[in-house]
Amino acid sequence: MEKKEDLGSFLKYLPLVAQSSSLAWPPSVEQELQTISEGPTKSMVNSGEVLASHITNMRKSLSLDACDLSPNPLLQGYATFFDKKISREESAKFFGEVVPALCGLLLQLPSMLETHYQNADHVLDGVTSGLRLLAPQEAGVVFLSQELIAALLACSFFCLFPEADRRSKHLQSINFDDLISFPFMSYCSKRENKIRCLLHYFERVCQCMPTGFVSFERKVLPRGHKHNPHYVSYPEAEYWAKSTTPLCSVEIHTSGAIEDQPGEALEVDFADEYIGGLTLSYDTLQEEIRFVINPELIAGMIFLPRMDVNEAIEIVGVERFSRYTGYGPSFQYAGDYTDEEDFDAFKRRKTRVIAIDALPNPGSTQYKPERLLREINKAFSGYLHQCKHQAGPPPSSAVESSKRWCMDDHEEKIGVATGNWGCGVFGGDPEVKIMLQWLAISQSGRPFMSYYTFGLQALQNVNQVTERIGLQEMKVGELWSKLVEYSAERLSRSTRLGFFSWFMASLSATN
Fold this sequence. Notes:
Distance between the termini: 72 Å
Largest sheet: 8 strands, mixed
Number of helices: 17
């Protein structure tokens, strides 16, 4: 088993040990898990304080660096949440049913991983799909069962992942200690509700384990493939300026959320360069809400380091478990959600999440030509098709993977559902960003852009602008050139108008 290359490279990130033909927990950890799995009447694990004590013992048995997780905040945090922040009834149910079941799931983790690695080379006709580090510039895919994901996330909840080597590989912390163990006085409503979403996920999978699969793909818009007919290389500004591709159709929604879009579309996650962002921290942004209502997304944080400028991450198959209300500070868990999305041939839900990171706090520099190019190419890397179909899309409709594979037989019909990418706390110009996304989606060959404004005032006239652009029958190259011209005027301070007002005025001046 340890001779498997993908397992061998990832073993140091797991809390297990490899033997000649199997994986195993260290005996002392296995004993702790076995004891807790028998329920609170035998284990006496009936409170957050006692649970934290057992977690601390397991971490010591795993020889995890003491600086990774200080016992005092752990004890305080788990005791605060489970013994004070939730009701006695909720706590009794969690420790009576969920915690023992999670420990039972963790006892199965070694055998689940063994089965996973045995099957990993047969999912996509010999293409490696086993759990491994998908490093920057290493295009590839990982296929995980929902059951294995549940076990990995249980490992996060019990804070059993080694963290020390993750930082050097640009991997985020994956244990739940920062989320749950922050000092008592720092608890706030949005943080409590984020935890409640995750606990509800554990309750659901312990009641009825889902049987589907989820794929995680690092997509790379390659450099230096100018003579390869299968790929488009990382475009320069000239590529965009000369494009004669028609603009795709646009649907504007002033209410609703991306995850509720009714059709088949890539659903954009407004990530930072580290997928998942602050999901497992004490803060909450709108983009991390998606990760707590679809907690299987968090599994990608285990093995996906930060994204480079020419990369995106596509996750297909995640199930939604929770409802919510509010935004940012008003975010609240709102109960159970039954996901009725259909499955594809790979037993994945037809939910496609694409993570692309925008420039943080760009200020006026976002109007520089190189910044415009960076943003449009970042979006382009996410929206491009992942394979060359047998029917043969144009060469510009393929991104690089470890090998070409085709997991959607009608991908050319799948549009993009997106919103105010890189705006809000990231400080992007929403009028420019919607145009950049429209250009990238159109050039990628996607048939439509379904745009959710979340009621943003700056976009109140977007329908008027997109309709005018449609009447002009503008191509990608023409609209790109208008954006470049406008941005130059913003940089030189010869205009202070937003792009919409500037664009409409420029059309009037030429008519």
